[in-house]
Inverse folding.
DNA sequence: CTTGATAGTGATTGGCCACTAACTTGGAAG
DNA sequence: CTTCCAAGTTAGTGGCCAATCACTATCAAG
C-alpha cells in the first residue's frame, strides 16, 4: 500500500479515535491498531501526533460540508436549509463525525489558553468557511445561518450525552408537537 | 483551613484547569498548584482524579443555573428568556465556566464509548434538570427552551474558537443588523 | 545479481503522571 | 506538659506513551 493511501486510512482511523478520546485521551497506539499498522510507522507518515489530529480535524470539517453540499445540491433558500437540516440530523447516526467537531473546539480552546493563538486563527478560518458556504446556500442572511448552526451545536451536545432519537428532549426541534403538559411545579 | 474549605477551593481550581485542558489534558499537579497545596494532598480530599472532575462538572451546571435564576428572578415568559439570554451572553466573559460545560459533554461521550453508560445517565439527569428549570421559567414550552439552549451551545462554540465580541460572526444573534452584503460568489 | 528505494517492524527510552506511604507540624483538650 | 487528631508535606513507584533508532522485506530497474 502506498504511503498516500496509508495516510488516508490513518486520517480515517484517527478521526474515530480522537472523536471518542479527545487529543490527550487517545494514544497513537490506538490509532495504529485501528489502521492495522505498527505504532512507530505513524511517525513516518506524519511528523507527530499533533499533525495527525490536525489532519483529522480538517477532514471532519470538509466532510461536514460535503454532506451539506450533496444534500442541498441545486436547492436554495428555505429548501436548501431544510435539506441540510435533514442531512445533519442523519449525521446523528455517525456520532464520531459530530464528536470530532466538539473535540476540535475544545482543543482549539486549550491551544489558545496555552498561548498558541495561530491555532485559533486557523480554526476560525475553517469554521467561517463552512459557515459562509452554508449561509450562501440558504440565501445569504446571517440570522438564518446562525440559527442553523445553533441547532446543529445543540444536536452535537445531545448526541454526546446519548439521548436516543425518540427521547422527549428531541421534541423541541422543528416540526415536533409538544408531548406533555407544560404545567409543572418547580 | 478545614478539609471542607479546601475541597471547595479544589473544586474551583479544578473547574478552571479542566475547562482549559480537558480531563486527560489536566494534571492533578496543575490543580494542586492553583490551589496552593501539594499534589498528593488532593487524594486525601478526594478519592481520585475522576471524583475531582465530577465535582467540578456538577458545580459547573449548578453555577449555570444560579446565573439564570438570579437573572430571571421574578420574571417569566419572554421577559425571563431575554434576561437569561443576556445573562448567558455575559458569561462569555467567564470562558472557563462555558468551556467546562463542553468538557463535560465530550467526557460523557468518552465514558459512554468506553462502556460506562451510568456516567451518561447521571449527566443526562443533570442536563435535563437544568433544561426543565429553564423551560418552566420561560413559560413551559419545549420549542422555546430548545431554541434557548441551541443558541447557548453556539455561543459556547464561538467562545471556544475565540471570536472577539465585535466580530461579524456574532451579528446573526438577536437584535443585530446585517453588517455586509449577502451577495458573494462561492 | 545487485542496487536502491519504499513500506514496514521490534526494541527502547525518557518523561510525565496518578496514586501511595511514611513522616511532620500545629493547635486544642485534659 | 502531654496526648491526639486533623492538616499537610516529601519522597517514591509503577505504568503509560510519544518519539527515535536500527533493522527487515519486497520489488523494480539496470
Amino acid at each position: 500500500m502506498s504511503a498516500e493511501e496509508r495516510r488516508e486510512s490513518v486520517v480515517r482511523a484517527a478521526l474515530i479515535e480522537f472523536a471518542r478520546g479527545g487529543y490527550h485521551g487517545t494514544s497513537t497506539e490506538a490509532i495504529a491498531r485501528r489502521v492495522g499498522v505498527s505504532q512507530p510507522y505513524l511517525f513516518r507518515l506524519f511528523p507527530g501526533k499533533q499533525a495527525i489530529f490536525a489532519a483529522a480535524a480538517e477532514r471532519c470539517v470538509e466532510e461536514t460540508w460535503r454532506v451539506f453540499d450533496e444534500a442541498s445540491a441545486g436547492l436554495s433558500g428555505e429548501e436548501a436549509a431544510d435539506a441540510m437540516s435533514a442531512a445533519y440530523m442523519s449525521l446523528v447516526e455517525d456520532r464520531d463525525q459530530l464528536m470530532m467537531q466538539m473535540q476540535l473546539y475544545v482543543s482549539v480552546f486549550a491551544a489558545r489558553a496555552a498561548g498558541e493563538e495561530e491555532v485559533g486563527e486557523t480554526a476560525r478560518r475553517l469554521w467561517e468557511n463552512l459557515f459562509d458556504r452554508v449561509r450562501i446556500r440558504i440565501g445569504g442572511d446571517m440570522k438564518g445561518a446562525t440559527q442553523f448552526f445553533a441547532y446543529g451545536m445543540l444536536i452535537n451536545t445531545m448526541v454526546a450525552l446519548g439521548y436516543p432519537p425518540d427521547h422527549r428532549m428531541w421534541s423541541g426541534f422543528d416540526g415536533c408537537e409538544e408531548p406533555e403538559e407544560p404545567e409543572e411545579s418547580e
